[in-house]
Every structure is written in structure tokens, then in C-alpha cells.
């Protein structure tokens, strides 16, 4: 190794995240994208409401408390050292390199599993949008693979393009959710309890006011 090579290596800047690459709003949207609002709400909200009824509200608020604590912990760790390796770097430096190595592999396995489980339902839904039906499982596999590769290319291209893509997807997701919420609220407000309790015509409880049927408490 020559002296110029040593000098070049010594003066090379340390690898680090680009400062101020994205704003707070974009960072928030990227964080919210991990919760996949459309998928999470679609898969869990109905079952949660069915199981707990009006008790679901307090449960959601209680689960928000540890999430806020975790978010504050991430904020403090990022103030200590901001690194794209995140938990791998933090655990490796604060506790043990061995545990940091295991943490990195656990995160890779979790992200791969989560990504596959979320992408596998895209194929049938995309075909249904265009009024088509899958001819076999390979149609779904092909569509999911293409979408995964596109997302991977966007992620490799850089954080700025990734942030713009996430913002666009989040706007679409939350627009759909808000639309369904408004439609559901309108249907509930239009519902008439008195009308729903009215006996159908021809039933044994049907009768005009003052008749024996109406006075019997039917």
C-alpha cells in the first residue's frame, strides 16, 4: 500500500446518513407506512369491534402508551447515533456485538416475512380491480414479484424518492379509509331504529293502533 493510498483512506469521510434529506412530515409518513393502515384496519378493526364492542376504544388508547414510550426511546437513540442499521448498531454498541448481529438477522427475517405476507394479497385484488380473475397461482406470484422489485428499486434509488413514493401511497390509503368512514357514518345516521323495530306486514304482531295485537306488546 502506497503513501497516497494511506492518505486517501485516512481522509475519506465516514459513512453516515445524509442530513436533512427528508422533512419531519415525510419522516412521519414513512413511520406510519410501517403500520400499513389500510391492511391493518381491514384485517383487525372488524374483529376487534365484534369482540370488544365499545371496549375497543380504551384498549386502543392503552396500547398507544407503550407505543409512545418506544417512539421516545427511538428518538433518544437517534440523537445518540443516527444510523441506517438502527437497532443493529444500537444493540451492538450499547450491549454486545453478538446481540447486535442477532438483532440484525431477526429484523431481516421479520421484514422479509412481513413484506411477503403483505404483498401476496395484491395479485388477486389488482386483477379484481380490472375485472379479471387469476388463471392460477402463478398470476398472483408474477404480479407480487413485479411490485416487490419495483419497490426494491425505489428503495435503492434513495431516501428522497422513497419518501415521495410513501407520501403518495399514504395519501391514497388514507383517502380510501376516510371515504369508507364517511360512507359508514352516513349509513348509520340514515338508519332508523323505529323503522327497524316495526313488524313486517302480515306478521301476527301487525295491527293498527288500538287493536288487540298492538296492545299485546308485540
The gyration radius over C-alpha positions equals 27 Å
Structural class: mainly alpha
User: What proportion strand?
Assistant: under 5%
Major sheet description: none
N-to-C SSE series? HHHHHHHHHHH
Distance between the termini: 98 Å
| Low-pLDDT residue spans | 212-217
Can you count the helices? Answer: 11
Q: Determine the mean pLDDT.
A: 74
Shape: globular
Q: How helical, in percent, are the residues? A: over 70%
Number of strands: 0
What does this structure look like?
The protein is mainly alpha-helical and 218 residues long. The protein has a domain at 158-192. The protein has helices at residues 3-11, 24-33, 37-52, 56-80, 87-94, 97-119, 122-129, 137-157, 159-190, 193-197, 212-215. Helix 5 (87-94) packs antiparallel against helix 6, helix 7 (122-129) crosses helix 8 and helix 8 crosses helix 9 (159-190). The longest helix has 32 residues, at 159-190. The model is unreliable at 212-217 (pLDDT under 50).
Amino acid at each position: 500500500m502506497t503513501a497516497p493510498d494511506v492518505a486517501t483512506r485516512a481522509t475519506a469521510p465516514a459513512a453516515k446518513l445524509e442530513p436533512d434529506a427528508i422533512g419531519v412530515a415525510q419522516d412521519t409518513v414513512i413511520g406510519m407506512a410501517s403500520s400499513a393502515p389500510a391492511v391493518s384496519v381491514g384485517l383487525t378493526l372488524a374483529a376487534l369491534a365484534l369482540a370488544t364492542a365499545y371496549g375497543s376504544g380504551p384498549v386502543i388508547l392503552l396500547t398507544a402508551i407503550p407505543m409512545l414510550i418506544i417512539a421516545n426511546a427511538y428518538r433518544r437513540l437517534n440523537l445518540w447515533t443516527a444510523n441506517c442499521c438502527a437497532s443493529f448498531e444500537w444493540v451492538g454498541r450499547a450491549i454486545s456485538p453478538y446481540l447486535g448481529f442477532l438483532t440484525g438477522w431477526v429484523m431481516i427475517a421479520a421484514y422479509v416475512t412481513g413484506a411477503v405476507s403483505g404483498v401476496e394479497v395484491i395479485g388477486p385484488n389488482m386483477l379484481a380491480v380490472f375485472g379479471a380473475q387469476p388463471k392460477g397461482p402463478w398470476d398472483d406470484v408474477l404480479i407480487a414479484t413485479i411490485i416487490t422489485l419495483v419497490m426494491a428499486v425505489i428503495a435503492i434509488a434513495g431516501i428522497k424518492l422513497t419518501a415521495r413514493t410513501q407520501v403518495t401511497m399514504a395519501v391514497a390509503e388514507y383517502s380510501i379509509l376516510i371515504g369508507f368512514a364517511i360512507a359508514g357514518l352516513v349509513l348509520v345516521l340514515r338508519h332508523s331504529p323505529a323503522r327497524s323495530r316495526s313488524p313486517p306486514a302480515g306478521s301476527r304482531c301487525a295491527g293498527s293502533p288500538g287493536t288487540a295485537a298492538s296492545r299485546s306488546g308485540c
